[in-house]
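Recap from last week: sequence in, structure out.
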Amino acid sequence: MDNNLKVKLISYNLNNVEICASAARISTTQGNAVDIFERAGENGKNGELIQKVLRSGHKSIIEHAVFTFALKDVSAFAEQFFIECRLASFTVKSRRYVDFSSSGYYIPPDLTGEDLSGYCKYMDALFSAYKLMLENDIPKEDARFLLPYSFKSNFYCTLNARELLHVISDIRYGRGQGIPELQELADQMSEQACSVFPCIDFGEGPAPEHDVPCADKAAVGDLELIRPQEMGKVSILNEPSNPAAILEAAYRITHPDSSPLEVNKLLHSERPRELEQLSYSFVVSDITLSGITHIVRHRMQSIIVPSIQEVAHNRVIIPDTVGRDGKLTAIYRDVLESSNDIIKKMSGNKELWKYRYYYALSGNVMDIATTMNARELNHFIKLRACSRAQWEVQNISARMLKHLRASYPELFCSFGPSCFVDGKCPEGRMACGKMKEVVDKFKKLP
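Predicted structure tokens:
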């Protein structure tokens, strides 16, 4: 990969122009789908047709063009921006299993002199503290709370041309505008996509009515270390008033002559679409930026996450693995006190303050809101309530489940991790070996 490239197009579907042109023709052209596609290869007006259909507002035709990008050594802030795109697929290098001591961090190219040295001093101190935590047997998933959001991440992203247009537009004219790193990534993605799909201008003009984060919302103040018991609290905002009636009505549409519905059997149905009719909304307070990444990767939800540009820099988790050790606690606090002092001073420096999002820590906390249907909640809880999941998200999923069981016990008392729901563990040789204890725990969960 060219060292000047941070994002590289590593795969795309062949004949994407012919495929999209065929999609444009199929609703108005005689012949079957295969014949229409085969004739498209001989038609020199495919690009013109695609552009004409796009101008008329029918953008679904370009969803048949699919691209996979490898993003190399981009900041965790940039990663977070991308993975909030609901219609793309991502696979990210895990901070729970990989040592990031030598990953390096993104440096804005326009920083010079004292600003540059101050930026690097801040980042170097946090990386040194992260490494020290690992050397003292603090798990990677807890040591990572010290990593600043400038640290370099690597991931794959697959999306169709319509979503790619949206992402590039959102960077150039929406919530990503004014962020040089994202602008560079958008330029590289646009240039490479245009080279293999030239009938679309991926650098087209701005989409209207984008929300842009306020430049001055980020909070500064005295350091506040938050214990795990104080974070990840869950409240339920909305729930169906009569979920049993909704499920029964949905079930009768496809099973008009069958016996009465047994709701717990829906979990083992091959196609439990009835569960999708039940929607639940939650607020999760004081979840870390690291924890948010575990939640946003679930595609089938509507989630609201504040911009990292608005994070309260002074509010940081101290995990129990650190808090139980007095010496490490002192080191952890001292590093964060020094970092927070830098943040306070930086708020008066416009050249650095504009890059405040890189100073955010993986252990900073935010509030989020999400809405999921019962089918997705079953999938989410099966994965996230598992004892192998990250402990913060384990706690959140269990708290969500308590609300759900109180709301509709006939259904949700059958929800839990995979071993509880299915009677077997899907983790293979990586299983926790405590299946009986986990099952008993969720049998007793209120």
